[in-house]
């Protein structure tokens, strides 16, 4: 299955606790908790471009599977990381955050980010 497509956030768990843990200010947490972000993924072989639009904030990351890339985190920090693919999962470690994005079926993506004991889960549906 291909990740290519546009997905809208349908539900999320532990948003506030996770965002606090990574140091996002309370003001931004309150603003962002009810916004239904849209993720657009372009997959061309091992080349990916992921664009996440949350209100007026746009986060764009491009990477090649298995190669070191500069990725922007949720807090806006740029870090070097290697995205790995395991069948229908994309896995990356960013500053202690383990992120797994799984294409669970043709229309659903589940992104799970773990920091310490906090697990933040986002479920998005294809639009």
Indicate the proportion of strand residues: over 45%
Shape: globular
Mean pLDDT: 94
Beta strand count: 11
Sheet bearing the most strands, described? 9 strands, antiparallel
What level of helicity do the residues show?
A: 10-25%
Helix-strand pattern: EHHEEEEEEEEEE
Radius of gyration from CA coordinates: 14 Å
Strand order of the largest sheet: 4-3-2-1-11-10-9-8-7
Give the end-to-end Cα distance, rounded to a whole number of Å. Answer: 16 Å
Uncertain spans: none
Structural class: mainly beta
SS summary, helix count: 2
Please outline what is shown here.
The chain has 127 residues and is mostly beta strands. It is 11% helix and 61% strand. It has helices spanning 15-21, 26-32, and strands spanning 5-13, 38-44, 47-54, 57-64, 68-72, 78-82, 84-86, 89-94, 97-105, 108-115, 118-126.
Throw out a few tags for this protein.
two-stranded antiparallel ribbon, about 10% helix, single chain, globular, 2 helices, nine-stranded antiparallel sheet
């Amino acid at each position: 299955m291909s990740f290519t497509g546009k997905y809208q956030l349908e539900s999320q768990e532990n948003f506030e606790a996770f965002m606090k843990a990574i140091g996002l200010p309370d003001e931004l947490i309150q603003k962002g908790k009810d916004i239904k972000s849209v993720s657009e993924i372009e997959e061309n072989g091992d080349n990916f471009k992921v664009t996440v639009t949350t209100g007026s904030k746009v986060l764009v990351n491009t990477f090649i599977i298995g190669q070191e890339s500069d990725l922007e985190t949720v807090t806006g920090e740029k870090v070097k990381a290697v995205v790995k693919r395991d069948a229908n999962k994309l896995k990356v470690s960013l500053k202690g955050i383990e992120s797994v994005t799984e294409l669970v079926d043709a229309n659903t993506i589940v992104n799970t980010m773990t920091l310490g004991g906090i697990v933040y889960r986002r479920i998005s549906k294809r639009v």
